[in-house]
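U., I forgot to send this yesterday:
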Amino acid sequence: MSDAPTMNVESFNLDHRAVAAPYIRVADRKTLPHGDVITKFDVRFTQPNVAYLDMPAIHSLEHLFAEKSRNHSDAIIDFSPMGCQTGFYLIVRGEPTFDDIANLVERTLRDVLVATEVPAANEVQCGWGANHSLEGAQSAASDFLAARASWSQVMA
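Result:
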């Protein structure tokens, strides 16, 4: 990859063979025209090109995390799944530390573990309300939490 031209999308410049998921890392940080800062975190649940989350689990994690994380922080801008189905991008206002984000992720995923339903998992509030799995989301959350001690270790 070192001979490849630098691409505009940060994750396209990341050697996905060299990472060791699960992890959390800063993927991008931008200062907006009026001085506001936003930070994008790569919250990687599974090892790229080795394992992936199924779509109903991803969809439910997206709903649960988007709703529950806002109970712990008013800095959340977005929580979006990666197309490769290996994790999510968490975009927040400001420049939080790794510990701030790791604690937010941990608290939110603990909320996921005790959830009894997926918020807005219906055809009125969701574009594919039938495509959810609370059990899948909870299993992925449990696996990610079990690796909490290694979240800061990005590269193998």
